[in-house]
Design goal:
This protein has 8 helices and 20 strands. By secondary structure, the chain is α+β, with helices and mostly antiparallel strands. The protein has 2 domains: about 10-195 and about 315-360, Murine Class I Major Histocompatibility Complex, H2-DB, Chain A, domain 1; about 205-305, Immunoglobulins (Immunoglobulin-like). It is globular. Residues about 1-20, about 305-330 and about 340-364 have low confidence and may be disordered.
Length: about 375
């Protein structure tokens, strides 16, 4: 069962399972019924780092990393064309949202129409894999099967779109070519532009926090990079799951990440804590684990609101966009796909993304 619709940071993204795997993904969201929030927002990310942003308020696509600005030296019209794409898609997505509302027999309230697409590329094997997914109000609407190049429509309201797209064989070939070739080529360029930043390692600060003596103990790591990280609790040297609640990996304002894991120990005497329990943080590329033994003297009581954990408010990041549980769930699915299987051209001829334009102009 899907959780209630909510606003979340789109940067909660697909994690790579290896240091040599990279990802390029784009998110587009049209929304209605939300006051003081852009009706359209888009963002591009490389390896979970935001590279571009556009919304209906600023009405232009802007770079979000210094290193991505290097693209202008090779493709002078890059940002102009990205802005044009944003303006076109803004109109299309707003129209698609209204069509979706009609198909679902809805007229008022908060609604979202979303697209998430991109590719993953292994710079050792050269393997590339693409995906293209659409969602409406927190649930899958229509999704491309990359193996069969056919569309999957879990909602009856999207079946008409599925039949239309499945019968367009030329567009399907363009889709496949873009997602497996063009997207991967641009991803390689972006990785080369930002390699020194994207391949860095930042260690976090790890703290133990507790709101009240009877509240769960929170182990919080903040300031780490890359995003490929794990956090868990151990008892007597063994990882435990009972009574443990893991949070999502979230972005900080400075390009690093934070995560948390909470443990409920109300039934365990405090004198047993240091001898049995410890929080473990693991970061990709770092051999040594960061371990915090659970001791009463190390816990900050009533300090959550003043801790070093950076908040990610609605406008704290330029990457904040309207999203829903659909995005989180589809990204988690993509994580599993990548683990188990262990742009677009910038000039009129180099950036001929026929398929992308077709998908942008198709209405559900």
């Amino acid at each position: 069962k899907m959780k209630p619709l909510f606003i979340v940071l789109i940067l909660v993204g697909i994690q790579g399972s290896s240091a040599v795997k990279h990802s390029l993904k784009y998110f587009y969201t049209a929304s209605s019924g939300i006051k003081n929030f852009p009706s359209y927002v888009s963002a591009g990310l490389v390896d979970d780092v935001q590279i571009s942003y556009c919304d209906s308020n600023i009405n232009k696509n802007i770079p979000k990393q210094d290193w991505i600005k290097k693209v202008s030296s090779e493709y002078p019209n890059y940002w102009k064309e990205e802005t044009q794409t944003c303006q076109v898609k803004q109109r299309i997505f707003k129209a698609n949202l209204e069509i979706a509302k009609q198909r679902f027999n809805q007229t008022e309230g908060v609604h979202f129409y979303q697209q998430m697409y991109g590719c993953e590329w292994d710079d050792e094997t050269g393997e590339a894999r693409g995906y293209d997914e659409f969602g409406y109000d927190g649930e899958d609407l229509i999704t491309l099967n990359p193996k069969t190049q056919e569309w999957i429509a879990p909602k009856p309201q999207a079946v008409i779109t599925k039949h239309k797209w499945d019968h367009d064989k030329d567009a399907a070939e363009h889709e496949k070519y873009y997602l497996t070739q063009i997207c991967a080529e641009w991803l390689q360029k972006y990785v080369n532009y930002g390699r020194s930043s994207l391949m860095r390692t930042d260690l976090p600060s790890v703290s133990l926090l507790q709101r009240t003596p009877s509240s769960p103990v929170s182990c919080i790591a903040t300031g780490f990079y890359p995003k490929r990280a794990e956090m868990f609790w151990r008892k007597n040297g063994e990882e435990i799951h009972d009574g443990v609640d893991k949070g999502e990996i979230l972005p900080n304002n400075d390009g690093t990440f934070q995560m948390s894991a909470h443990i409920d120990l109300r039934s365990v005497p405090t004198e047993d804590w240091p001898n049995k329990y410890e929080c473990v943080f693991q970061l990709s590329g770092v051999k040594e684990d960061m371990t915090n033994r659970l001791e009463k003297t190390r816990i900050l009581i009533n300090e959550c609101k003043n801790s070093k954990v950076q908040k990610t408010g609605s406008w704290g990041l330029a990457t904040t966009i309207a999203s829903a549980e659909w995005t989180l769930r589809r990204q988690a699915t993509s994580d599993k796909r990548q683990a188990t299987s262990d742009k677009r051209q910038a000039t009129s001829d180099k950036r001929q993304t026929t398929n992308d334009q077709r998908r942008a102009t198709q209405r559900p």
